[in-house]
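user: At home tonight, take the chain set out below, taking as long as you need, and be ready to discuss the fold:
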Amino acid sequence: MKWQKERVLDAPINIVWALFEEEQALRIMPKVVENKWIDKNPEMLGSTYEQTYREGKQQESYVVKIVEFEDTVNRKHKRIKFQLANAFEMNLAFTLEKVSEQQTKFIYSGSNIGINFVGRVMLKLGSGKKGEQVIYNFLDRVEQEAISDHKSLSR
């Protein structure tokens, strides 16, 4: 499964970017319960952290690696990679482009690949509509949190 979705957010690029700091993940990824740095490089590229995820009563931890990182005035980008449940290779990218002082284009792209028989079968049996809904729910959460932060900082 691969995807790329875009949305223009009514918030400055730096406010949106702050949501993608590992310490803020719980705000935009409600099933993530903890991020713990393993190796944090000053330039972020190659940094790793342990992420703990909860689905119902089941909890799993895995290592996330930052494989691309860019932080300029007009463009910000982070791509992460990890294996989930020893069945899927997740590749997620978050790209922000400055539209204006008050607007940011958010591009969310990624892929979910089955790395073994079980993972491939689960992806084939999974509903495409359900996957799309997860992506749109994430876009909605990022937008809501960015607008909320922008309003509270504008007061």
User: Anything to note?
Assistant: The helical segments are 13-18, 25-28, 117-125, 128-154. Residues 2-154 form a domain with the Alpha-D-Glucose-1,6-Bisphosphate; Chain A, domain 4 fold (CATH 3.30.530.20). The chain has four helices and seven strands.
